[in-house]
């Protein structure tokens, strides 16, 4: 008999006045707060203006949430949302796409860099990547608590039975599936460790864009591979040779390679 883990975690922590407090929302908040503190320490270490962090926190939250929501609606479910435009605003009903959050974050921080730091946006990302990695790990833990975004059936001993998932009950009842949420948490933690070592131990922030480029390869190279074992997020992906997550990962992988090559050709900056 194959071993498996029966995942029976209630996604709701508790309810107040008919309103649910869910693990997913709490973990989003925890991820951003930890990230804020991490970036604050980096800026303090470099003796940068204190008000930069507060402004950055606002830019990051707004762009990440709005971008992730629009990414889900535009990339994955536009057939539905094009007929129900008002429901794009119903963010509490779920539906966020990490690629949309990344694209929006890049655009927002280009604007922030131009008007606040007056430095390259990649200079900023090099200092933010460890915090972003931790926030992403928290979000993936939230996906696990929601019993969502899991993989195809597996015979591996760490397969999960997501018994609270209607999708799992419909498609795979009785079969263990890859806990791809945990796999994604792990590559986020790898990105955190690698980027932290590059910044704090090897001081590779002197090569602007290198930390960001390496981290993009970790994030989206791993994401590209994991999509092969992940259950399709929308029905339209079932017949695609590469799914939407993979197509959206390709430009970010290319960007990562470009940043690495450019950083290694450029003379390193002096670190104060």
Structural overview:
- The protein has 272 residues and is mostly helical.
- 61% of the residues lie in helices and 6% in strands.
- It has a two-stranded parallel ribbon. Strands 2-3 form a two-stranded antiparallel sheet.
- The longest helix has 26 residues, at 51-76.
- It is globular.
- It starts with a strand and ends in a 7-residue tail after the last helix.
- The model has no long low-confidence stretch (mean pLDDT 92).
Distance between the termini: 61 Å
- SS summary, helix count: 9
Bulk shape: globular
Largest sheet: 2 strands, parallel
Poorly predicted spans: none
Structural class designation: mainly alpha
Descriptive key words:
272 residues; two-stranded parallel ribbon; two-stranded antiparallel ribbon; 61% helix
Quickly describe the structure.
By secondary structure, the protein is mostly helical. The protein is built from nine helices and four strands.
């Amino acid at each position: 008999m194959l071993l498996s883990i029966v995942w029976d975690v209630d996604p709701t922590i508790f309810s107040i006045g008919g309103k649910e407090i869910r693990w997913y929302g709490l973990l989003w908040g925890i991820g951003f707060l930890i990230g804020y503190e991490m970036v604050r320490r980096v800026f303090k270490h470099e003796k940068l203006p204190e008000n930069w962090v507060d402004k950055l926190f606002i830019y990051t939250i707004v762009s990440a949430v709005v971008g992730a929501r629009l990414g889900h609606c535009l990339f994955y479910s536009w057939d539905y949302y094009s007929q129900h435009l008002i429901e794009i605003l119903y963010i509490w009903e779920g539906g966020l796409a990490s690629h949309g959050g990344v694209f929006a974050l890049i655009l927002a921080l280009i604007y922030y860099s131009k008007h606040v730091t007056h430095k390259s946006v990649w200079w900023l990302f090099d200092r933010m990547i460890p915090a972003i990695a931790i926030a992403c790990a928290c979000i993936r833990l939230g996906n696990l608590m929601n019993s969502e975004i899991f993989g195809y059936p597996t015979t591996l001993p760490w397969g999960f039975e997501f018994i609270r998932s209607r999708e799992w009950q419909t498609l795979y009842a009785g079969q263990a599936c890859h806990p791809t949420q945990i796999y994604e948490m792990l590559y986020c933690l790898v990105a955190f460790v690698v980027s932290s070592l590059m910044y704090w131990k090897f001081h590779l922030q002197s090569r602007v864009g290198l930390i960001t480029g390496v981290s993009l390869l970790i994030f989206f190279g791993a994401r590209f591979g994991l999509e092969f074992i992940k259950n399709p997020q929308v029905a339209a992906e079932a017949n695609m040779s590469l799914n939407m997550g993979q197509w959206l990962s390709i430009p970010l992988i290319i960007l990562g390679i470009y940043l690495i090559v450019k950083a290694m050709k450029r003379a390193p900056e002096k670190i104060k």
